[in-house]
Structure formats: structure tokens, C-alpha cells
Specification:
With 340 residues, this protein is α/β, with parallel strands linked by helices. It has a single domain, classed as Ribokinase (UDP-N-acetylmuramoyl-L-alanine:D-glutamate ligase). Helices cover 36% and strands 26% of the residues. It has a nine-stranded mixed β-sheet, sandwiched between helices. Strand 4, helix 3 and strand 5 form a beta-alpha-beta unit. Helix 4 runs parallel beside helix 5. The longest helix has 16 residues. It starts with 11 loop residues before the first helix and ends in a 7-residue tail after the last helix. The N terminus is likely disordered.
Length: 340
């Protein structure tokens, strides 16, 4: 149902319970994150490189599929819409989705492009090599037509749409504009996790969430992290180009910034934590933000809860989805006000 038909929860337990009734359409680039762990005690006689004796391997869902894991962990229903290959990587991705009870209804398989697989070789706690199997070319006309049909069919089931862009070709400016227009026609909000190539293509979205590095690169600007006037000028430039309703910028150890449709600016500091791994924090932030937007929460509340969630997953090693019960406990501990 469109977000406008949903009432804003009054308490944190009501909010977290309301997550369970939401459906999130995630369109963008999915991938498999593959890991090979082993031991290395010698160099190869063929070249001056380590020889790794494999101890174990693991495949994980990455990219937009990791966002789906976070949405699922929060209690909502994720629907993935993406293009994968008719290859072993695609088979592995579908297997991982099935094992986690995630829908593959919106995945398009194509013989024209490989499934994105990022394989990491690790030994003694150190990454020795990463092998990427991927293409970054735009979709063919046939792939575009099939993906667009899948998106439109799934859209009527969605309360919010997440654009999860990794510059692998599933999203391009014309496709983005069409998908946002279709969502707006149905009153469905759109939230965006951008990358450089299509950075300014998301005009009219409900919430745009770059990190500070992406903001600078996407606008072609250079300024120091602590240069507040330059940062706010960059946000103003972003608004002039795209007219997003809300802008949420993650600032790493400096916390988050959000500006709502009325121009109200809010800075929220990062919470003191023992940081183990920042990988996947952005996926958690966009997942929480999307659910808050779907429920019509004020932008500062959306930013505050997303900030908490992003920090929590940074305390874990590796890319892991958010723990909903821990997030609720953290929000209650800081007395997060849903009416802010």
C-alpha cells in the first residue's frame, strides 16, 4: 500500500512491529561475495606469489542482496529486482536466496552478462587477492524490457523502493527516471544509495543517501571533511540539480546529516563504539531509512535510527545484517523520540 495510507507509530515497540507489515522493492546490482580462507607457508616456484592451501570457502549475498538481508532482518519483506547471469555465479546467488527464504521473483537471468562475483583470497587474517568477475556495461534492450516488466509487476506490492546502485549496469539514467516516475504515480516513496556514474540521475526521489566521499565525487567537488560551509554548499548544489525531498549524508566518525523537505538541517553525532568493520554499514543505513520513510517518520528520526543501526553493525566483523532486537534496545537506551 502507498506510504500515505500508513499511520505513524507512536512508540518504539510499535514502530518495530510496524516494520513487519512492510514490503520493500530493491532494484539495482546484486552480487555474490565469495571468500577463500587458507594457509600460506611458501612462495610459488612459478611466480613470486604466495601459495594458499584452502581450508574453507564461503559464499555470501552482496550488493542489493545484502540490503535484502537487512530488510528481512528488520522484519519487512524484501523483493529483489535485478539482472544476473545464466552461470554458476547466478546459480549460487539463487541458492543463497533460497536458503535464506528470500524471493527471487524479480531476478532476470541473461546469457549476455555474467553474475557479479567478488572472490577474496585470505590467509593468516590478511586479504592477499580479490578477483572480480563482472561487467559494467548497460543492459541490452531485451534485458531492459524484461527488468522493466518485473519492476512494474512488483511495484504494486511495495510500500517503498530502494535503488541500490553499484555502477554495474542494471541502473542507468533513463531507467532510473522511469522507475521513479512509476513509483511517484502510485504514491510510493523512493530512497537511493548512489554511486558515481548515475549520481545526479535520481531527480525527485524521496530520500537521497550518499556518504561524504560519494557526495564529493558525484558533484566533482573537493573540500575537507571538517569544512562545514563547503559541505552545506555541496548539499545545496545537490538539491539544485536533483530536487530530492530529503538528503541524508553519512559522515563516518562524524555521524550523519539530514535535511528535510522544509530545509530543516540536523546533525547527529556518531555514538562511541568499538569499530571492528565498517563493511556493509551503508546497506544497513539505507534499509532502516527506507522503512522509516515508508512509515512517514520525520527525517531527523529516520536519520537517528539509521545512525544507530549503522554503528551497531560496525561492531561486528564482516558484512552482517542488523540485529533488530539490539537496534530496538539501543533506540530505547538513548530514548529516541519518534516525534522529533
Amino acid at each position: 500500500m502507498p506510504a500515505a495510507a500508513l499511520s505513524v507509530p507512536a512508540t518504539l515497540p510499535e514502530l518495530f512491529a510496524a516494520f513487519n507489515g512492510l514490503t520493500v522493492l530493491i532494484v539495482g546490482d546484486v552480487m555474490v561475495d565469495a571468500y577463500v580462507w587458507g594457509r600460506s607457508t611458501r612462495l610459488s616456484p612459478e611466480a613470486p606469489v604466495p601459495v594458499v592451501n584452502v581450508a574453507r570457502t564461503e559464499q555470501r549475498l552482496g550488493g542489493a542482496a545484502n540490503v535484502a538481508l537487512n530488510v528481512q532482518a528488520l522484519g519487512a519483506t524484501p523483493l529483489l529486482c535485478a539482472v544476473i547471469g545464466t552461470d554458476g555465479g547466478g546459480d549460487q546467488l539463487l541458492l543463497e536466496l533460497h536458503q535464506r527464504q528470500l524471493s527471487a521473483d524479480g531476478l532476470v537471468r541473461s546469457a549476455e552478462r555474467p553474475t557479479t562475483v567478488k572472490q577474496r583470497i585470505l590467509a593468516h587474517g590478511q586479504q592477499l587477492l580479490r578477483i572480480d568477475s563482472e561487467v559494467e556495461t548497460d543492459l541490452s534492450a531485451a534485458e531492459d524490457a524484461t527488468l522493466s516488466e518485473a519492476f512494474e509487476q512488483l511495484l504494486d506490492r511495495a510500500d517503498v523502493v530502494i535503488f541500490e546502485d553499484y555502477d554495474k549496469g542494471v541502473l542507468n539514467p533513463s531507467r532510473i527516471a522511469r522507475f521513479i516516475a512509476q513509483a511517484r504515480e502510485r504514491g510510493i516513496p523512493t530512497v537511493v544509495d548512489p554511486k558515481k556514474r548515475n549520481f545526479l540521475a535520481y531527480g525527485g526521489c524521496t530520500l537521497f543517501k550518499p556518504n561524504l566521499k560519494e557526495l564529493r565525487e558525484g558533484l566533482g567537488l573537493t573540500f575537507d571533511d571538517a569544512d562545514l560551509p563547503a559541505f552545506e554548499a555541496a548539499v545545496a548544489s545537490l538539491r539544485a540539480h536533483m530536487q530530492p525531498e530529503n538528503v541524508l549524508v553519512t559522515l563516518s566518525e562524524r555521524g550523519v546529516f539530514v535535511e528535510d523537505a522544509a530545509g530543516q538541517r540536523t546533525y547527529l553525532p556518531a555514538h562511541l563504539r568499538t569499530i571492528s568493520d565498517v563493511s556493509g554499514a551503508g546497506d544497513t543505513v539505507i534499509s532502516i531509512a527506507a522503512l522509516c520513510v515508508a512509515l512517514g517518520l520525520p527525517a531527523p528520526v529516520t536519520a537517528a535510527l539509521s545512525n544507530l543501526g549503522g554503528g551497531l553493525v560496525c561492531e561486528q566483523v564482516g558484512v552482517v545484517p542488523i540485529d533488530k532486537s539490539l537496534l530496538l534496545a539501543e533506540a530505547e537506551a538513548v530514548a529516541l523520540n519518534l516525534q522529533a
